[in-house]
Design a protein that fits this description.
The chain is an alpha+beta fold. It folds into three domains: 107 residues, Elongation Factor Tu (Ef-tu), domain 3; 54 residues, OB fold (Dihydrolipoamide Acetyltransferase, E2P), CATH 2.40.50.100; 118 residues, Orthogonal Bundle (Helix Hairpins). 37% of the residues lie in helices and 22% in strands. The chain has five helices and 14 strands. A six-stranded antiparallel barrel has the order 1-10-13-12-11-14. The protein has a four-stranded antiparallel β-sheet with strand order 2-9-7-4, with no helix packed on it. The protein has a four-stranded antiparallel β-sheet with strand order 6-5-3-8. The longest helix is centred in the middle third of the chain and has 31 residues. It starts with 13 loop residues before the first helix and ends in an 11-residue tail after the last strand.
Length: 377
């Protein structure tokens, strides 16, 4: 029997069109969307330029550190040795001062009252010394001479009465008691004569030398108290001890100031030449050389470079002070502080030099080779 070679074709339906055309196209579209989504959401690593170009070291071997600008004399925080109310502030920020220039003055009325009392005590002691040195007073001598003569006259009268009493006693006219009384009267009269004569001699001799010495000592003591009060009054006017400029004023008239240590009422410093206090990490100390070339760059102004000259090393490693202020922060970094000097008017670069006390700078120091150890001093 011969097979039938005819193919039976059925009509195409929407199901066939969906499975043969629509689904493959949808799969290709989803595949394209997935590829686009993955590409568009990929992580892109960008390296945008910094807003401010960081400072760059001019040396091949560099030791970098942070520094703080301070006055040549360091920042001198002037306080008050005595407590009181400020009545006058005599300077303002930026004023030039010399040693002895008044900065501010405290109320001195109480001390001036004490000074008047102590000066009166000096005058009284001096008057007492003049009185002692003027002894004897001539007007007193005739008075004592008269008293001596009176005492002698009484002695004569007592002696005469005793003689008469002895005669009458011998004749049994007076009693023994009366005789004894007359004898005691003579003794008392003799003592009175001796006393008045001694008083006259003491007056004619003048004042005692040791009394004058005591009075002179009292004068010295009173004068010393006057000098001390005058010094205390002078100390109520606080003065500068160095030449420089007023960097900060933290006191106003009417404020009460005590005398605690470290209370900066006025900050003074010499800013004709400035210092930079550089903190060198303890791990970089072996690479530090004191005579190496160094330069400072202000933060935010890379056009300025200030050549530094070495001043000294403070040979005491201290905890780092540039902290964040967080209560949980641990001080585990110690630094060696090195002082450099520079002239603020000798900046290398464009622009107007402008550095202020307290400003931070980046410091670059030409370091020793990597195999060099120790600190060269």
């Amino acid at each position: 029997m011969k097979a039938d070679s005819r193919v039976i074709e059925r009509p195409r339906t929407w199901g066939d069109f969906l499975t043969q055309v629509i689904l493959p196209l949808a799969g290709l579209a989803l595949l394209g969307f997935a590829g686009w989504f993955v590409w568009s959401t990929r992580m892109i690593s960008r390296n945008p330029p910094p807003p401010i170009e960081p400072a760059r070291s001019p040396f091949s071997d560099t030791l970098a550190a942070a520094g703080v600008v301070e006055a040549q004399t360091e920042n001198i925080a002037v306080g008050s040795a005595l407590a009181g109310v400020v009545v006058e502030v005599l300077v303002k920020v930026g004023d030039a001062v010399e040693p002895g220039t008044p900065l501010f003055r405290l109320d001195d009325r109480e001390l001036r009252g004490q000074l008047a009392v102590k000066r009166a005590a000096v005058s009284m002691s001096r008057s007492e010394l003049l009185r002692l040195e003027a002894e004897p007073r001539q007007e007193k001598i005739p008075v004592l001479v008269a008293q001596v003569n009176e005492a002698k006259a009484k002695l004569v009268a007592a002696a005469d009465a005793l003689k008469r009493s002895e005669d009458t006693f011998a004749k049994k006219v007076t009693t023994e008691q009366e005789l004894v009384e007359k004898r005691e009267a003579v003794v008392a009269a003799k003592a009175a004569v001796e006393k008045t004569q001694a008083d006259l001699k003491l007056l004619e001799a003048g004042s005692w030398e040791y009394d004058r010495d005591v009075t002179r000592a009292q004068i010295s003591q009173a004068e010393a108290e006057v000098a001390k009060t005058e010094i205390d009054i002078d100390r109520l006017t606080v003065r500068s001890l160095v030449s420089g400029r007023v960097l900060q004023v933290n006191v106003r008239p009417g404020e009460f100031v005590g005398a605690p240590p470290g209370q900066p009422l006025v900050i003074v410093g010499n800013v004709e030449k400035l210092h930079v206090r550089v903190d060198i990490d303890e791990f970089d100390i072996p690479r530090f050389r004191s005579g190496a070339e160094a330069t400072a760059v202000p933060r935010g102004d890379l056009q300025q470079r200030y050549p530094l000259s070495f001043v000294r090393v403070e040979p005491f490693v201290v905890p780092k002070k540039s902290l964040t202020g967080d209560n949980t922060e641990r001080v585990d970094t110690r630094v060696l502080q090195v002082i450099y000097q520079f002239d603020p008017t000798t900046a290398e670069g464009r622009g107007r030099p402008s550095l202020f006390v307290g400003q931070q700078v980046e410091v670059f120091i030409r370091s020793a080779p990597a195999d060099s150890q120790g600190i060269s001093r």
